[in-house]
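Reviewer 2 asked us to include a model.

Predict the structure of this chain.
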Amino acid sequence: MLDESPDTVRSRDGSRILLAIFGKHPAWDDHMEDIGIDTPSLADFKRWLYVDGIRSNLDSGAWEQLAEDRRVPAWGHRLLMTGPTGMILAHLWASSDGRGRRAYPMVAATHLPTSRLPVDLGPMFDALDTVRDVCVLAETREGVQAAARYGSGALESAARRLSPLPEEGPSAEDRGAFLASLETGRTGFERLLHVLSSELGALSPGIKTRRDAPVRARVYRVPVPPSGVEGALLLWHAFFRTQIRPEVIWTAVHAGGAPWADLAVGGLDGDCVFRFRTTPVEVPPLTDIPYNIPPETLERAGRVLDAFRTPPFRVPPVAGDDPGEGGGLGGFVGRLFRGGS
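Predicted model (structure tokens):
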């Protein structure tokens, strides 16, 4: 998943900007015909999110069983997924089919052939907002297909304006501001590290396992400032990428306007996707849970926090021994954000 060679990632018309659209739209009486699922990673993404995730929760009635204050009322989610040589950005929004059934969302996703995140995710998410807007206005299947072509152009234009993050990731100033913005401050981060120390051991960069060994998907709810979600996701990514091996899939999902995000490690499954439609009344952020943290974990947490915000940002793994390396966001394996130069 997200491990294709960047040179092989092309849409059917040869474009490096891939836009996939699937889900529900009133022009179809049921699930629409997929548009643009042109890479194995996009096919896996749809299966993980839509089939194994959304469909399984709808079939089981998992969300319907929640009280209103425990359920996010409608789809309106942004998603960032990163892997060894690529990333997927997606927007999910409330929609319906031609029979008026509204349980499933419509989804627009783009697969970018690089593991290097841009300095600002905003332009790409803005372009996906444009895709949503033109799809909502479309009344026919031909209109949706035209919307997809228009959306591909918007994404290509946005990608040209992007600059990659430096190898060391966000600046010390941004990291410090990010830690200060967390409502529970250092205590909340220590609570998160306490959980990660017991759950991420097998995924730590210092632990050698078979590349094809199965990875159990885990999801962690964390705070984000509603006015700076994209920046917060970049900072959470900068932290988690020091804690997991490069081949492990990492996903961030944010429900529109919410002061929290869900971070999934190891792909997506039904349990992960279930979280996306729950409020903190059902699933509180880990930073809000008053764990009893042992002294040795607090000591390690202090070292991790100091390393995270201090150049050269060589952050030791929370679980396991420090392998002596870390802090990077991965190689810039594609030329996408440099206009092919």
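The chain has a mean pLDDT of 89. The first helix runs from residue 40 to 60. We have added this to the supplementary material.
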